[in-house]
Amino acid sequence: MMKRVSLAAALAAVLACGGSGAALAADAGDAALKAAIAGSARTPANAARDSARHPYETLTFFGIKPNMTVVELAPGGGWYTEILAPYLRENGKLIAAGNDPQSASEGARRGAARFQQKLDANPAAFGKVEIGAFAPPATYRIAPKGTADMVLTFRNIHNWIPIGEDGMQTLFKQVYDSLKPGGVFGVVEHRLPAGKAQDATASSGYMHEAYVIKLAEGAGFKLAAKSDINANPKDKADHQGGVWALPPTYANKDVERDKYTAIGESDRMTLKFVKP
User: Fold this and answer.
1) Checking DSSP bridges between strand 268-274 and strand 148-154, what pairing results, if any?
2) What total number of domains does the chain contain?
3) Is there a domain that residue 35 lies in?
4) What is the pLDDT of residues 256-273, one digit of tens each?
5) Which residue pairs, CB below 8 angstroms and at least 24 apart, start in 99-108?
6) Cα gap 93→66, rounded to integer Å
7) pLDDT (tens digit, 9 = 90+) per residue, 112-134?
8) What domain range includes position 96?
9) Cα-Cα-Cα-Cα dihedral of 172, 175, 181, 185, to 10°?
10) pTM score, two decimals?
């Protein structure tokens, strides 16, 4: 198991090794991210998914730096929040834009309360997280226009497809507007093979990569790069119950569980978009 170390210790170790200028800053940034991934703010169950989700490789691919203002859209239970919040705490800013605590939906309010309880339980790691709200198609309290360096979302876009084509175009434009020129929109999403049909609500949880790129480019983004960091060729996206049949959800319980364990987590696109 990876040894858990503090961010301060990691940065101190880099400084003790000497060096100067840009090279030192780059080394320090890498050390800080590694320390956040190995840190005590993470729950063991979340850390156990690292081999499938590749957080270090994914975040460095997107170009994250510890002095950035970063928005996490729909953080859910906080899998990536546990990494991003400590990493950005001292020199950057994390805005978690998820369930609206003021929503008319009781379920959304409960979700917002659970997330806030998670943050409140560890103020040393999460005490500086700013809370936004993201509830398409109506609520987009993401960040003031033109202020974010990076917006990230992980395995979420399929959840928004039911708002329709116009709604999705508005959503992507809201993300675009929140970013500074040169800002990055980083997307990880379950990937549907091009030869399989994507239904109107993406009910399987899988999305066509070309469709996600089309949505982003329609909002003004340029596709800067894509990566197979999170690819899984064992996943054919043909499971009873959709992507949720796979670990860690195992929606089909014990039915063919060994098969799904052998496949692992889903095949995923990893896309880096830039606002010109």
Assistant:
1) unpaired
2) 1
3) no
4) 999 999 999 999 999 999
5) 99/133, 99/135, 100/133, 100/134, 100/135, 100/139, 100/141, 101/131, 101/133, 102/133, 103/133, 103/135, 103/139, 108/135
6) 9
7) 999 999 999 999 999 999 999 99
8) 53-274
9) -80
10) 0.90
